[in-house]
From TrEMBL:
Biochemical pathway: Cofactor biosynthesis; thiamine diphosphate biosynthesis
Transmembrane segments: none
Keywords noted in UniProt: Hydrolase
Segments forming domain Thiaminase-2/PQQC: 9-203
GO terms of molecular function: thiaminase activity
Organism: uncultured Coleofasciculus sp
Name used for this protein in its record: Thiaminase II involved in salvage of thiamin pyrimidine moiety, TenA subgroup with Cys in active site
Length: 206
C-alpha cells in the first residue's frame, strides 16, 4: 500500500464523519439552507487563497522540476475553483472581499501556512492532500446515483468529475514520492482531516 493510501485509510472515521455531516447531506439532497451555503462559500474562498499560497511555497521548495511544475498546475486549479466561488457569490449577492474568517477557517489556514513556511515539500503535500482526496471522495459519493438537479448540483458536479480525481491522484503521487511514514506525517495528515470536519461543522452551525 502506498503512503497516501495508508494515510487515507487510517482516517476513514473522519472521512465518513464529513460525508455524514448534515451540511454535506444538505448539499446532497438540495435541502441545505442557502444562508449556510453562502457562509461556506465565503469561508472556502478565504481558505482557497491560503491553499494557493501553500502550493506556491511547495513549488519553491520542490526538490525536482517535475514537482515544481505540478505544484504550479495545482495552484492554477485552485484559481479555477475560486472562479466557481465567485460565480456563487455573484449569484447570491455575497461580497467575498468583506469575508471575515471564522475560527475553524483561521485554524485551518494558520496550520496550512505554518506548515508551508516551515516544512519541506513532502510535509506540505501531506497537509494539503486530505482536502483534495476528501473532496474527490465526497463528490463521487454524492454523484453515485447520478447528479440531481437542484441548486447545489454544480458543487457535486465539480468535485465528482474525473479531472478533480486526477488532481487528487497527482498530489498523492507527490506525497508518496517526497515522504516516509513518520509520527509527524501521520499527525499532520490527521490534523488536516480534523480541520475539514470542523470546517463543515462550522458551516452547518453558522
Amino acid at each position: 500500500m502506498t503512503i497516501s493510501k495508508d494515510l487515507w485509510q487510517s482516517n476513514q472515521d473522519l472521512a465518513q464523519a464529513c460525508l455524514e455531516n448534515p451540511f454535506v447531506q444538505g448539499i446532497a439532497n438540495g435541502t441545505l439552507d442557502r444562508a449556510k451555503f453562502a457562509y461556506y462559500v465565503g469561508q472556502d474562498a478565504f481558505f482557497l487563497e491560503s491553499f494557493a499560497r501553500a502550493y506556491s511555497l511547495a513549488a519553491a521548495k520542490s526538490p525536482d522540476w517535475e514537482g515544481f511544475n505540478a505544484f504550479h498546475t495545482f495552484a492554477g486549479a485552485v484559481l479555477e475553483e475560486l472562479r466557481l466561488h465567485e460565480g456563487y457569490a455573484t449569484k447570491w449577492g455575497i461580497d467575498l472581499r468583506t469575508v471575515e474568517p471564522g475560527t475553524a477557517t483561521r485554524r485551518y489556514t494558520d496550520f496550512l501556512l505554518a506548515t508551508a513556511w516551515s516544512g519541506d515539500a513532502g510535509l506540505i503535500t501531506v497537509a494539503m492532500t486530505p482536502c483534495m482526496r476528501l473532496y474527490a471522495f465526497l463528490g463521487q459519493k454524492l454523484a453515485e446515483n447520478g447528479i440531481p438537479e437542484h441548486q447545489y448540483a454544480d458543487w457535486i458536479r465539480t468535485y465528482s468529475q474525473p479531472e478533480f480525481e486526477q488532481l487528487a491522484q497527482q498530489l498523492e503521487v507527490l506525497t508518496d514520492r517526497y515522504t516516509t511514514i513518520t509520527a509527524s506525517v501521520k499527525s499532520t495528515y490527521r490534523y488536516a482531516m480534523l480541520c475539514e470536519r470542523d470546517f463543515f461543522n462550522a458551516a452547518w452551525e453558522s
